[in-house]
Specification:
With 483 residues, this protein is α+β, with helices and mostly antiparallel strands. Helices cover 18% and strands 12% of the residues. It has nine helices and eleven strands. One of its GO terms (molecular function) is NAD+ poly-ADP-ribosyltransferase activity.
Length: 483
């Protein structure tokens, strides 16, 4: 078979498809395009190319009219949405806030917490000021007896019909354990349980030392009687106010706030310190330890706290601040202004301090009453000795037996003598070992003169000399038997 010319044959041209006689259907006029700023009318596609006519011209179709341009889509902008209405809440009236008295809030100031004292007492107030405002002195005793009789920290347990003696089973079991133990020494704080608090179970006897407290005193396991009815009253008696003995001391005095305010209104005044109080023991200890003469140290008979006028105390504190500002003694581990307690002996022409006598005399020659009422004054220099080893100043000493040599009873019949224990701003002291009678002020750069004892010197005992009236204030009056 000859295929040589087969591949050279021309294929017949295929006629193109006849165009559709119908024009393209335009979109409806109500066609809505989604509202969007990015949408635009789409462009019309270009017309299709017309195919070339074949060699053998077929019958020519009639010419078609050009398609009419389709109308552009109409963009209908919908109306903006209406704002969503907000719900209007009705203003509800707030109820009036009432103070909430819970076990953790102060009844006087509901926002403050309760306050626990260092002695373990539980007053139920945020501070001593709130307690004193809300209570009278007689109500402090009721608070003490509402606490547990063993721990004296938590309130007694109440079951609705009966008030028990203890706060819970723990204190109850501990009280039973202590009552079953052998007798402790007389100074033991263990008690015989709650029997000593029931007046019907014990015979009549001494009552609590706290003024106004009718309850009987402690009964130790060996039968020894104490001085107070509860641990709380014992703490107030030994570390509380020296006047009422029913409230804690304030921060600025050995008296509570009400007693201190009352004393300031009657200044100058002296208040007797109880024998079992910590201040009494502190002053008595200093008196005995500083007695350096060979004579026997006499027994202290009474100690009085001196309450000076508020204006006089303010002047002393201002001088103390000025000395502290120059020397920065607190940063060196010392007291503010290097404050110390020193003894001073003087003349007494009345019975002030004897057997509880607290009345000042009007005699201008009674140096004791004058110093307590108006404090020390340099102008009375030489009134006792006629001269001064270290010049024109106010002399004190850390040796009680040396100050005893200057304590004199004039024109009175008394077995007791008086010494003043004073607060003195030492500041920066200049140490001297030789006499200098021309001094009228401390050496430059110093606040006082420290006369020290050296072998072969003129002094047998130390002296402290200040030259400013505001550098010293009387603090305690100590009465003792004449040696």
């Amino acid at each position: 078979m000859n295929l040589k010319g087969f591949f050279k044959r021309k294929s017949k041209p295929v006629p193109p498809p006849a165009p559709s006689p119908l024009p393209p259907t335009p979109p409806p006029s109500n066609f809505l395009v989604p509202r969007s700023p990015l949408l635009r009318p789409l462009p019309q596609p270009p017309p299709l190319p017309q195919p070339l006519p074949p060699t053998s011209s077929p019958p020519t179709p009639p010419p078609l009219s050009p398609p009419s341009p389709s109308p552009l889509p109409v963009l209908l902008t919908p109306p903006p949405p209406l704002p969503r209405p907000r719900l209007q809440r009705r203003p509800t009236p707030r109820p009036q806030r009432r103070p909430f008295f819970s076990p953790s809030t102060c009844p006087t100031k509901p926002v403050a917490f309760r306050f626990n004292t260092a002695t373990g007492g539980y007053f139920g107030f945020c501070s001593n000021e709130c307690a004193e405002q809300a209570r009278s002195p007689g109500e402090w005793e009721e608070q003490a007896h509402s606490l547990c009789e063993y721990c004296n920290k938590r309130p007694k347990f109440k079951d609705g019909t009966k008030v028990h003696a203890y706060c819970g089973l723990t204190c109850t079991n501990r009280a039973k354990t202590h009552s079953s133990q052998p007798n402790p020494p007389p100074d033991s704080p263990l008690l015989t349980g709650s029997a000593h608090l029931d007046p019907q179970l014990i015979p009549p006897g001494p009552t609590c030392r706290t003024p106004g407290c009718p309850y009987p005193v402690f009964v130790y396991l060996n039968g020894t009687l104490g001085d107070y009815c509860t641990v709380a009253h014992e703490g107030w008696g030994k570390r509380g106010c020296i006047s009422c003995r029913a409230a804690p001391m304030s921060k600025v005095s050995v008296l509570c706030r009400p007693c201190h305010k009352d004393a300031l209104s009657r200044t100058p005044v002296i208040v007797e310190v109880p024998e079992d109080h910590e201040n009494y023991k502190s002053v008595e200890k200093q008196f005995k330890q500083s007695w350096r003469h060979k004579t026997t140290c006499p027994e202290v008979q009474a100690i009085y706290k001196i309450i000076v006028a508020e204006a006089s105390l303010r002047q002393y504190q201002q001088y103390q601040d000025s000395v502290e500002g120059r020397g920065n003694f607190v940063a060196k581990g010392k007291s503010r202004g290097n404050e110390n307690r020193r003894w001073h002996g003087t003349k007494r022409k009345c019975n002030l301090g004897d057997q509880g006598c607290k009345t000042f005399c009007a005699d201008s020659a009674c140096s004791l009453c004058r110093i307590i009422k108006t404090s020390f004054d340099v102008k009375f220099f030489k009134a006792a000795t006629g001269w001064g080893r270290f010049g024109h100043g106010i002399y004190t000493s850390s040796t009680s037996s040396k100050s005893n040599d200057y304590s004199k009873n004039i024109g009175i019949n008394s077995e007791w003598k008086a010494l003043l224990l004073n607060k003195v701003i030492v500041g920066k002291g200049k140490k001297l070992t030789k006499n200098n009678t021309s001094l009228t002020q401390p050496p430059p750069g110093y606040d006082s003169v420290l006369a020290e004892v050296v072998p072969g010197g003129f002094l047998n005992y130390d002296e402290l000399v200040v030259y400013n009236n505001e550098a010293v204030r009387p603090s305690y009056l100590v009465m003792y038997k004449s040696p």
